[in-house]
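Message: I would love a firmer grasp of how sequence relates to backbone shape in proteins. Thank you; the sequence and its tokens follow:
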Amino acid sequence: MENEQIEQKMPIGMILILVLFGWGAVSLLLNAFKIPSYQLGPIIVSGARATVVMLVIAGILGIIFYGILKRFRWARKLAIGWYIFWMALLLINLVSFLANKTMYGSYYQKFLPPDMASLMTHELINASLISGLVFGWIIGLIVIIYLARRKDFFVN
């Protein structure tokens, strides 16, 4: 018998991780040109700068998606690094917002109609950032632990 390489089936966990990265990249691409805004710690970038930030992040997520799909070893390390960075950014964003209660006020007044901007209260934004932090950390820890245990999946 010849040495034939048997191709492994894609585990369900890797499929879910691919969905996370693909969904993230596509949603950033779709939102980058609508009303672009992105919080990077204590600052909110908007307009063309936010579009560039969102396109760069979508590119990184796309590269990770491709690397996992092709089972490149570097993709595992990059994905773990991305989630560590992302989890830290979620925490920094929340702390920055709690330290500056007027952070979003001018942004919402500039881009939203007055009736919509008035709905964006500090409590609502605070709750959304806290829930984003909690769910982001849960998902991030699950992905990091899964990728750390699945070294054998990455063969290239």
Observations:
- Residues 12-153 form one domain.
- The helical segments are 12-31, 48-69, 73-99, 105-111, 114-119, 122-149.
